[in-house]
Every structure is written in structure tokens, then in C-alpha cells.
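Example 4.3 (complexes with small molecules)
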Amino acid sequence: MIKSEPVKDAFLAVDRANYAPSSPYEDSPQGIGHRATISAPHMHANAAESLLPYLLPSKSATGRPRRVLDIGSGSGYLTHIFAELAGSDAVVVGVEHIDALRDLGESNMRKSPEGRELLASGRVRFRVGDGRKGWVEPETLNTVSTDPSATDAIEAGRNVAEKDPGGKNVGGAADESDAQGWDAIHVGAAAAELHDDLVRQLRRPGRMFIPVEDEGGMQYIWVVDKDVDGGIEKKRLYGVRYVPLTDAPKKN
Ligand code: SAH
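Answer. The structure with S-adenosyl-L-homocysteine bound is encoded below.
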């Protein structure tokens, strides 16, 4: 499943033993509690290969630092792989709807010196929120957009943030072309639909990798591309089996 050198190097650089509670080098998913699993390495490889053009640092003179969103970050393993690929000026955000799993991703990352450095530098952040709404990093709410069509979106995001000053669940619209949007969005749980909020939060250009369950209960990987003009192309690829992207369990 690993086809390119950068993905191979990233997989060699990140030890799955820090993220999988057992049999880390087997090509199978492993339970991590809370009905979640660390996906099988071959699915992580597929995701990284598919998103690669949007993960690697841009070579163009105008290239902006990468912004990558990993929804349902679970163990944190793929979040770390993304950070490895995206370069030293990138920001990679993992979003979980269960506090304990947010904490798990972060504590797994703390097991290695490289992981600790990613957290300390702010290049990787683990957040709590409903990933179906995407994610707006609180720090980006004050950035000024050069794209007038994005102003409403920024306002919408700011309003959400004010209602939720704890910074949790700052979902909502993002500035798709600029500071708030994402070059790559990975969804690690099966969605019921291709959530509009997620497509909106893709940068131009940008790509989303998302498993979606159809009405017959079959799950397929979809890849959604947004081009530089904002045009959207959706492609259904192969069948898969993921845990569902759901409401957060009620807290007692
Ligand atoms: N990429 C992770 C996959 C974990 S399993 C890994 O390989 O370790 C899928 C994860 O999605 C679970 O941890 C689950 O808690 C999370 N999840 C499910 N619904 C969610 C939602 N609405 N918002 C955010 N995370 C969600």
C-alpha cells in the first residue's frame, strides 16, 4: 500500500508501538478503548498516499505552510504521520469527540522525543469537538482574510467561538481559501454523508479523504477535491469498514 518514498520514510520514522496497545506491527486494527480502534496500517498508508500531494510542503514560491485536519484522531498515530510529511512549518490538528481519546492521542505522542517536540512547538494540536462540523482553530479567528467572500464565514466561526469560550467545538464555517481552511482533511470514522461543513473548510486547492456509509450499510472511501476556483469533484473508491462518526456518548 506504501507507494512513495516520503510515505515510506514517514512510516519508518513513527513507531506504531507508541500508538497501538498490542501487536503494533500486525496489519490489523487494534482496540484503543471507547469503542475506537487504531486503524490497520494499510488503511493509514492508503490515506497518506491519497492525501500526499496536499500534505507535502508546497514547492512553489507562494506555497503556504500546510494545514492538516485529522478528524477522529483516536490513537494519534496518523496525526503523527501527517506531521512528519507536512514539514516543519505545518500545523496538524487532531479532533476527537471523546475527551479521553483526545488525551490518549496526546499522551501517545509524548512517548517519543519527536512527538514531544511536535506538541511543544504547536505543530500538532489535539482538540475536542464534533468532527462532523470540521474545526476552526481559535487562533485563526482574528486573522484578516484577503478574500471578501470569506468574511461571512469568518464571522460565523467567531460567533461560534464566542458562544463557546472554552474553545471546544469551534466548528462551523472556515475561510476556505486562507488562514482557517485545510489543505488536507482526513476522516477516520465512517460518516453518514459528505458533510458540507467539511467540504467548505477545504482550502482551494484541497483534498478530503472520508469513509461514508450508504443506506445499505456499505462503506466506501470518498475523495473530495476542491480546485483553485472552488470547483468540487467527488470520487467513490473502494469498500472499507470503519467505526461510525457519531454523536459523542453522554457523560455521566
Ligand atoms: N485515526 C484513528 C481512528 C480512530 S477510530 C486511529 O487510527 O487511531 C475513529 C475515531 O473517531 C474514534 O476515536 C472516535 O472516538 C472518533 N469519532 C467518532 N465520531 C466522531 C465525531 N463526531 N467527532 C470526532 N471524532 C469522532
